[in-house]
Task: inverse folding
């Protein structure tokens, strides 16, 4: 998969990290909460969006980030 | 009809174009002013016209002799219940509910919050408000009391209409205690709460402000439709914004009615009396426009579906509903298709149903990745049309206008600008970008009828959020580009562009590539901070059901795949 991205966007994209998760955090209407994911990875303080579908996913994602030593969990 | 000609007319002579469309609906007073501007130069459509949305959705069709046509099919896999309502039945219930609301002291200009599950009474409540000029604000059923309280304090409803409970897949959620808690938390106190008792076993603590829905409807006389001005706010709908205080999008009546009628015919290609199903929720804009008002104004049969794409009871539910109710046109979100694809990658369930009634599948809510579209096309032989719009617009802004001309589909593109929307791609400094250059998606004012009127009681925030960035243009907040044939590709929210070692990269493009991998069910690519490169991309991947076993033993961090 990393090769796929490098082939198609170029090495500058440098997609090194792929984390497998069970679920992605979404709003109730099904939009992926990308900003929330960024905040978790960057270790920023964040407010849980009011419209989140399932808050439990935040901890699941954080655990995966910790295990994989992503971003601020390095 | 030719799309390009039709589009050009709408941009070159918007007043003539929309006057003609406004003539397709009935007015108590036809507008003599087609396009005016408010003090901020923001468009006001059909300013001096008078009409009533509920009349257009119900009474008109009865007067035209279609009272026995089915208006609503309620299909509820979570309660194993299917019920049909004719236009006559809906009108009678709505008019009585409206009469009951008047007896509770509601009048034109008041607001009411509707906090309901996906049951017909949610639509009845909306229509009853519209009937007497009460501005409704539907709050997605199941939002926590704190969220409901914020919305109550913002729009200050005189009344809340709710139900005893909702069902989340297999879990009964008592709604009424959530409403009671919200009222306690809120500073503003609604006078009355109408409770529809679903009799599903939820405990409903009785409060002094409670009114029983059935008793109210049974004991009330039918109320007539109250004419309202075209710019009267039909509803306030709070967006599912990801940060900060929710934004109350205000919708007018005249422009919206005109736009919905127009879009049912020219975008969705819906013929009157066909079954139109938007598998969404009345708490979202899709529910307002294309479960309730749009299909009913166009005299379609609409489906109120109380279930999920999967687990109610399984990934066959959508196909069962389409086959059973002879759905001609369906609308759902890509995330629903991805959920089904994950459970049923080979489309085994699809083969069990006769889907020959289905003519077109529309998708919106987020950009649809090519892998999902291709999966759909492989298993179901109807056009799958991605299209783009926002709560703010109320109806599609970029689409393949199926009622005008079916243009060749370009995978990954939401289509071309819809009539009335003069869409441009701007760079950071407001300069217009050329073909295939990615930038901000903006729309030259005036926006066509039906788009947002304002933010509820917060015009400053409205201007700051949408109009000030590029004067004379509506700022959508999304990024994208046009190709050399004017197909528009939306690449996501503008803050989803990442900057790797000085190169601006679209995470959408990377998501596209990652999701083309056969074992990926869903993915998100985000930019995370990196000391060296500024930002680096990170992909979060949800695997296909079939692959989970083979992957679960592996390390979660993958350097080479």
Result:
């Amino acid at each position: 998969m990393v090769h796929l991205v490098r082939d198609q966007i170029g090495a500058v994209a440098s997609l090194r990290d792929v984390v497998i998760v069970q679920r992605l955090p979404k709003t109730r209407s099904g939009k992926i909460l990308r900003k929330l994911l960024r905040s978790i990875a960057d270790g920023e303080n964040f407010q849980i969006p009011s419209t989140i579908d399932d808050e439990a996913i935040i901890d699941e994602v954080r655990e995966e980030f910790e295990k994989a030593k992503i971003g601020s969990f390095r | 009809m030719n799309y390009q000609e039709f589009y050009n007319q709408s941009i070159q002579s918007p007043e003539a174009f929309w006057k003609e469309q406004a003539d397709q609906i009935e007015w108590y007073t036809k507008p003599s002013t087609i396009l005016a501007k408010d003090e901020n130069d923001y468009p006001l459509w059909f300013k001096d016209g008078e009409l009533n949305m509920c009349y257009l959705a119900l009474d008109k069709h009865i007067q035209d002799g279609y009272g026995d046509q089915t208006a609503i099919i309620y299909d509820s896999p979570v309660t194993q219940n299917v019920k049909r309502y004719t236009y006559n039945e809906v009108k009678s219930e709505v008019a009585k509910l409206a009469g009951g609301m008047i007896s509770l002291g509601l009048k034109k200009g008041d607001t009411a919050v509707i906090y309901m599950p996906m049951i017909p009474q949610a639509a009845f409540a909306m229509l009853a408000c519209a009937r007497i000029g009460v501005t409704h604000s539907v709050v997605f059923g199941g939002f926590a009391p704190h969220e409901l309280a914020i919305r109550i304090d913002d729009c200050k409803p005189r009344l809340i209409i709710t139900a005893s409970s909702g069902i989340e897949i297999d879990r009964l959620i008592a709604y009424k205690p959530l409403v009671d808690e919200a009222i306690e938390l809120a500073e503003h106190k609604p006078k009355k709460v109408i409770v529809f008792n679903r009799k599903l076993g939820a405990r409903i603590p009785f409060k002094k402000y409670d009114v029983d829905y059935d008793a109210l409807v049974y004991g009330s006389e039918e109320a007539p439709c109250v004419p309202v001005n075209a710019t009267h706010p039909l509803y306030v709908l709070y967006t599912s914004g990801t940060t900060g205080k929710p934004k109350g999008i205000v919708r007018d009546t005249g422009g919206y009615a005109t736009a919905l009628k127009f879009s049912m015919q020219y975008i969705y290609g819906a013929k009157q009396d066909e079954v139109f199903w938007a598998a969404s929720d009345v708490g979202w804009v899709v529910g307002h426009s294309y479960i309730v008002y749009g299909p009913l104004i166009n005299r379609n049969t609409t489906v109120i579906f109380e279930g999920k794409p999967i687990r109610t009871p399984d990934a066959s539910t959508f196909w069962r509903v389409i086959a059973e109710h002879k759905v001609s046109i369906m609308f759902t979100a890509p995330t629903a298709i991805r959920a089904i694809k994950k459970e049923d990658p080979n489309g085994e369930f699809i083969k069990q149903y006769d889907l020959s009634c289905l003519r077109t599948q529309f998708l919106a809510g987020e950009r649809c990745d090519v892998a999902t579209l291709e999966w759909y096309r492989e298993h179901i032989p109807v056009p799958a049309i991605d299209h783009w719009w926002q709560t703010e617009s109320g109806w599609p802004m970029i689409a393949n206008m199926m009622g005008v001309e079916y243009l060749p589909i370009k995978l990954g593109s939401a289509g071309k600008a819809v009539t009335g929307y003069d869409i441009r791609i701007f760079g950071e400094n407001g300069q217009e970008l050329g073909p295939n250059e990615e930038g901000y998606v903006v729309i030259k004012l005036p926006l066509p009828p039906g788009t947002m009127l304002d933010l509820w009681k917060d015009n400053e925030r409205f201007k700051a959020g949408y109009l000030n960035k590029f004067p004379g243009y509506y700022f959508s907040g999304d990024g994208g580009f046009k190709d050399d044939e004017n197909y528009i590709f939306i690449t996501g929210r503008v803050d989803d562009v990442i900057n790797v070692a000085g190169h601006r990269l679209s995470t959408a493009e990377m998501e596209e590539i990652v999701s083309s991998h056969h074992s990926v069910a869903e993915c998100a690519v985000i930019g995370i901070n990196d000391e060296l490169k500024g930002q680096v991309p990170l992909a979060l991947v949800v695997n296909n059901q079939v692959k989970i076993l083979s992957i679960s033993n592996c390390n979660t961090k993958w350097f080479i795949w």
